[in-house]
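To illustrate this point, we now present one chain and its tokenised fold:
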Amino acid sequence: MSSLPTPATRAGQDGLAALLADPGKALIALDFDGTLAPIVADPELARAHPQALDALVALAPKVAAIAVITGRPAEVAVRNGGFAHVPGLEHLVVLGHYGAERWDARTGEVTAPEPHPGVAAVRAELPGLLEGSGTWVEDKGRAVAVHTRRAADPQAAFEALREPLTALASRHGLILEPGRLVLELRPPGMDKGVALSDYAREIGAGSVLYGGDDLGDLPAYSAVDTLRTTGTPGLLVCSGSDEVTELRERADVVVDGPEGVVELLRALVNRIS
């Protein structure tokens, strides 16, 4: 039986204490890729950790809400996570495209605004810009992501493309968001911090746990910091990665990837029981 780790910061200790004291008001919010699902070379093949679903089902009845907050389209995260039609997860919410899309397990429907026109423009220009780079483009519908993990020198390709892709994004009213060997071009105003804050406010969360692994999770970390200053305790969890040190440095708890996230969820179930 896994034991709960002791948070490294006083704010994290307070966040965990609040969650355990009143789990019925706790929001458990988690990234998908790298947090609930191992990172793989082809994002289309990413699937949730084999024990993740069972851990979420066990925890869900004990807390106010569970939300998966991801840069992926909501329906892709639902499919790759196996979240649809799962008894016990009727109140799960997937906030896809950094909150621009929302899937509710109760209805099985996705709600979303119209896509930003700049995404189509960027999609059309990328093939010429990336020719011969050894990269791979993931079309997310409301964003496009350029992955360098398959290139001969992934880090060199990543660095070489940052400037031209930043310029391309800017020309079409988008922003560039760097991640773990991925550069994503997406509309401004879409980030996990906004999505997390809005949902926490919507459900009246009394405490918040957020777990992530990549640079795109930093806005959610900042959102938890802000919630703390306004009276809502929070716990920051890093699904450990040597590729992204910024989250490790800010996290209250660092676990060993998706396997460690599953163990943490199980430990919460045991303590709350």
